[in-house]
Amino acid sequence: HYISQRSPNLKRLVMPAWNRISRAGICQAIERWGELESLTMPTIGHPPYIMEGLANSCKNFKELKIMGSFDLLFASAVTTYLPKLKVLSLRCSKVTMGALQCVLNSLEHLEVLNISHCLLFEMATNGRRQVIHELDNKALERASRLREFHHCQSRQCVACQRMMLDEGILRWYRYEDWFWRRDEVRSLDLKDYGRLFGAQCEMLTSVD
Length: 208
Description:
Number of helices: 8
Shape: globular
Strand order of the largest sheet: 1-2-3-5-7-10
Number of strands: 10
Mean pLDDT: 89
Number of domains: 1
Low-confidence stretches: 196-208
CATH topology: Leucine-rich repeat, LRR (right-handed beta-alpha superhelix)
Structural class: alpha/beta
Distance between the termini: 43 Å
Order of helices and strands: HEHEHEEHEEHEEEHEHH
Strand content: 15-25%
C-alpha cells in the first residue's frame, strides 16, 4: 500500500516473487498504478484477476514478463484481458504448447515474443509429458510475423541445460545474481538494476 501510494505514476514494475503479498493488496496497488506499462511477475495460481485488473486500470499497459510456468489458463487470461499486448517474455519458463499456440493465434497486436530457454512440452496420448525441442512449421510461420521472436531450445545452451536440470522451474538462488535479470528483449533486460551487491561489495565479501 505504501509503495503504491508513494508512486502513483509508476510505469514499470519488476516483482519476480510476491508470495508475501495478498491478492487484495496487489489488486489495490494496480488500481492506483494507472500509468503502468510494464510488469514482470511470477506464476500465480489464478492469473485472470491480475490480467483483469491491468486491463481495467492500466490503459497504456504493453509489456508482460512471466517467470515460472505458463499454461493454457494463463495464456487465455492474457489473450482475454490484454488483447493489445505488444511485448511478452516467457524466458526461462515452463510453457505448454497449447499456451504458446494460444498466444500466437490470438494476440493480434503482439510485436515481440521471447521463449528463449523455455521448457516447452505437451501431454502425449499416454498421459506423459513430452518435451518439445523444435517448433513445428505452423508455430514458426506464426512467429515469423512478429517484429522480434527470440527462441532457444538448445542442448548446448547453459540456460537451457539449467531449465532441464530444474525440470522447468528454475531455482534462481542456485545461479549467478545477474541471471534472473537478463532478457533477450532489450526493454525488459534489467542489466545491473536489482543487484543485491555492487562490484566493490562482491570483491570485499568474496571467498578465495
